[in-house]
Amino acid sequence: MQLAMTIDELHDFLARDFPQVAGSFEVVSVAPMQITVKLKVNDGHLRPGGTVSGPTMFGLADVSVYLAVLAMIGPKELSVTTSCAMDFMRKPAAETDLICECRLLKLGKVLAVGDALIFSEGDPKPVARANMTYSIPPKS
Amino acid sequence: MQLAMTIDELHDFLARDFPQVAGSFEVVSVAPMQITVKLKVNDGHLRPGGTVSGPTMFGLADVSVYLAVLAMIGPKELSVTTSCAMDFMRKPAAETDLICECRLLKLGKVLAVGDALIFSEGDPKPVARANMTYSIPPKS
Amino acid sequence: MQLAMTIDELHDFLARDFPQVAGSFEVVSVAPMQITVKLKVNDGHLRPGGTVSGPTMFGLADVSVYLAVLAMIGPKELSVTTSCAMDFMRKPAAETDLICECRLLKLGKVLAVGDALIFSEGDPKPVARANMTYSIPPKS
Amino acid sequence: MQLAMTIDELHDFLARDFPQVAGSFEVVSVAPMQITVKLKVNDGHLRPGGTVSGPTMFGLADVSVYLAVLAMIGPKELSVTTSCAMDFMRKPAAETDLICECRLLKLGKVLAVGDALIFSEGDPKPVARANMTYSIPPKS
Lengths: 140, 140, 140, 140
Hints:
The structure is a homotetramer. Chain A is of the alpha+beta class. Chain A has one domain (about 5-135): Roll (Thiol Ester Dehydrase, Chain A), CATH 3.10.129.10. Helix content of chain A is about 20%, strand content about 40%. Chain A is built from two helices and eight strands. In chain A, the strands form two sheets. Chain A has a six-stranded antiparallel β-sheet with strand order 1-2-6-7-8-5. A two-stranded antiparallel ribbon of chain A has the order 3-4. Chain A is globular, with a radius of gyration of 14 Å. The mean pLDDT of chain A is about 90. The interface between A and B is medium-sized, with 26 and 26 residues.
């Protein structure tokens, strides 16, 4: 297995196809079947008390697994999330970037499955875990 | 079982405690153990193609189950989401409000469990389903 | 939408393809996109204290959604469960049959999604909820 | 963090409290916040074609996370599963034991969260993944 996209290509893809959110995400590292993505927290991500909101963490896990899939199969913007499950285990640290460590567990012809752990940067205890399933469009 | 909060009180709670998002949500109806919430879709909720983003749908389900719990137990802002699972089943209609129909399946002393169906307004086929678990703070 | 299989045909399918478990399940009613299945509890389903085990409840939800799909598309034994999520909300009543009320939320070409509520017979409060996704084999 | 129970004590606990299933499970290794459990597959676990059934895999993940919790907090048979999510990714190898590698992500006062990967023994590609949440009884 080898990568179909570099970090720069993943960043370019995000900027072109998801301009509303691209500025918040930074691919820290990518390797076959795994990726690490940072969420650069800003005021729009916060809930009262300075903690990152649930939808923001969902979005981070969703983008991370998506990019892990694209890194393997190339830029197919038609891949769609079909299901996810998350556990929110600890309160994220206030006003601290989040790190999402993601691995692909399956990359089939029709479905891809990945899971992710989300950390407040600098703290080894995960704040959330997620698993995501993506539907992959047929080759045309 | 009877309600601890009215629709107006739920709207006031949202406006005070979640000012960033309160303007997007409207409680359509509330009854013991169930609630219907509308997401008034704006540009910030959309992905390319005009469809509502996954994190927005997650946020809608999350707020709806939360408000269903508060409607029963009164305004306790310390309730936190502990887990969720969602299936994304159809593409939401472009630039159309979403309706979330939510029921509480359990309202225990420690945990509350609810599920939700999300529809594009006017279409009877659900675009997503969700289940959410909330941790309820002990009485002080 | 109309049914592709009757209750008798569903029972025959179970007896032929799942002989180890068929005797435990009874389809109570079936209609387009919904089914009700009873688990006739026996000693093999119980945990100490006389309560039904978690794997037994998982199996009940799994079979129910599976039969709901087959009732719509006909007997395709190649359909496979791809994902599920369950919440266990109350302890089932001791030595009491379980009733699983299931509805299909999506019946696509590739994936089917259903959810289910499980009750101890005679008690209106659900003991568990489940959602299941099935992969449907391509038409040959 | 240190262990509250040894492998032998975990096996004794299973044999005493879950005599119906204890013979199927073998704790391969245990360490703080992680455990590996083998399912010794027998005919009762199989579906037509010789593959392990979904409820059997659910049961394996459930027991594994449960034992990982007990290994940390000691034998409290009142811990109960409150929720789970699983993805079934590949067909298990026919008539082959399953290995479940489990880690605890959170061990709180009220809730414990673990995840697990299940493998057919000898094959590095996971056949299933699971996450489980347990409710922990208060100290008496």
